[in-house]
Amino acid sequence: MVADSRSPTPSLQRQFARALVFGVLLPALVMMAAFGWYDSNRQVAAVRMRMDSVAQSTAASIDEFMQAHRAILMILAQRRSDENSVGDVARWSNDLRRVISAYPAFRSMLVTNAAGTVVTSAPVALSYSTNVADRAYFTQVRRADRAYVSGAFRGRAIGTDPLVAVSAPLHSGNAFAGVVEASLRPDAIEAAAFRALEQRRYEAVLADEAGTVIHSTPGVRAQTLDALPSAKEVRLHRPMMVNGWLRDGDAAYVTAVPLSMGWSLFVLVPKSLVVEEVTNNLKVPIALLLLLSVGVGLAFWSQLRVLQRSVKRLLTILRAFALGGEITADPAAMPAELAPVVSAIDDLSARLNMAYRELRDALDHQKDLAESLQNSVNTRERIIGERTEQLRQVNAELDKRARTDELTGCLNYRGFLEVAPRLCSETLAANQPLAALALDVDLFKSYNDRYGHPAGDNALRRFAGAVRSALYRPDDVIGRPGGEEFIVLLPGASHEDALSAAHRIQNCLRRAAVVHADSPTGYLTVSIGVAMRNADGDCDAMLARADAALYRAKKTRNMVSD
User: Fold this and answer.
1) What secondary structure does DSSP assign to 273-309, as a single string?
2) 106-112 and 175-184 as β-strands: parallel, antiparallel, unpaired?
3) 162 near 225, Cβ under 8 Å?
4) Which of 1, 162, 218, 351 has a CA between 20 and 30 Å from the CA of residue 46?
5) Helices marked H in 489-538 — which ranges?
6) Cβ atoms of residues 192 and 57 within 8 Å
7) Could you tell me which CATH class the domain 413-561 is placed in?
8) Beta-bridge partners for 526
């Protein structure tokens, strides 16, 4: 047989190129795309975590700033009331100047009598006929008889700049005698914290309870005294994406952090900043992909040259053999995968190679069948294991949800019915006492009617959080049988421990300061009934006594009864 002396056909080159593209370049592209998607999600999650951390720390700084400025007014008002020197104008003038000098954030201060008429002010002396009885910093203090921090408003006595007021009540004996008030510039409220946010290229908005802007960074569209759009929605769902908040029109991720005085701090991260971080992180993978492409191209060119030289040498040897020459080439030096080599061997020893190929094909087929069967078995076992684990997790989650109140995270009625008898039996067997607290949020229907059910749900979550923070024992159980009623079981607690826990719950709820305008205190309160299990071990009787004690406490509200 005469060997074909033509060059290798282009089809082999195309097959080799296709194998490189589908075996190397395409998987690399897919991996880079997957990495880009994963990294972008990771970056967004990291930005949200950083944003939430920065927002929490900034809100804490603002809270500390406002609490310090409110505290100085409370101290000043208390000292003058205790000294019975509320009407001493000369001493007041000296005090006001000293406070403004020590606290430069205060733009102005004034003192009024019980009718709201200004008796002295600093640094500018106002007319003694000036009356501020219509201002919230006067009316709120007179009504609640405690220190007050206002939202943003526009001044009218000393200029018309936006201001925030801090005020405290004055007393003559037990009677209300007026207020001492200090006005702050919104841009002076913890200015260093806002500068730190700007250095991070973050934006921020400080807004009062009504959603009115107190202070904002330059990149925010809404400025002081403007109504902040979607403020309520952001408070309920954080973090989230918003549009139209930034001056340049860029979308932004925003998170809201509530402050103790009822304000909210909104921290925004421009979407373009997140995209920039993601793009920077993709530069290295893209460079690696380019290098990989160049390396694959060089490898393809190099291997093609080797293939061409090998085929040419093999054809030369086969021509010599066909003419009666002797083959002197080393088979190990030739690529075994070349089709021309297989064809030449077939020409030299057809029968031997035929038998060899048949045997090899049979063995390969058996091997493929065995591997295919093993792979099928492994795949089925893996799928069965995964499905079994998924079912176990789903069943566990369903069981947990069936026993847990979704709103507060406490035990629901079903969960409480399961846990209470077991806890009662265990404490009785261990000869331990068991106490029950029956809790009912005061005037909660009025709260829902005034603020709406979403706010009521949020108030119940905060109430449940206050109850948890007041319980020190890991075995204490909180249940929500329904509505605004809660039950707490305290294993191992004495009667004194139970009363102490009840008062801690009231204190924690008081510190939570959930505003309730219809409540006599101005905030959400709770009535608590306390009962201990008797020696007979009857837990139902204990719960009935706790309900009866709660009924007695509810008669006056915000009380603990046993």
Assistant:
1) HHHHHHHHHHHHHHHHHHHHHHHHHHHHHHHHHHHHH
2) antiparallel
3) yes
4) 218
5) 495-512
6) no
7) alpha beta
8) 441
The secondary element (H helix, E strand) that includes residue 129 is: none
Residue 529 is which amino acid? G
- Tell me whether strands 477-482 and 175-184 are parallel, antiparallel or unpaired: unpaired
DSSP 523: B
Question: For strand 477-482 and strand 485-491, is the pairing parallel, antiparallel, or unpaired?
Answer: antiparallel
CB burial of residue 256 (10 Å; 0-12, 13-18, 19+): buried
477-498 as b/e: b if 16+ CB within 10 A: bbbbbeebebbbbbbebeeeeb
CATH (one of 3.20.20.150, 3.30.450.20, 3.10.20.90, 3.50.50.60) for 55-65+189-271: 3.30.450.20
Q: Could you give the CA distance from residue 423 to residue 29 in angstroms, rounded to a whole number?
A: 59
User: Structure pTM?
Assistant: 0.48
Type of residue numbered 324: G
What fold characterizes domain 70-186?
Beta-Lactamase (3.30.450)
Closest among 345, 333, 481, 330 to 413, alpha carbons compared: 481
Least Cα distance to 208 among 144, 153, 287, 154 occurs for 153
Mean pLDDT by 10 residues, the chain (562 residues): 52 66 74 74 78 87 90 90 82 89 89 90 78 91 92 79 91 90 86 82 88 88 84 72 86 87 87 82 76 75 71 68 58 60 54 61 80 80 71 56 82 90 90 94 94 93 93 90 91 93 94 92 94 86 93 93 90
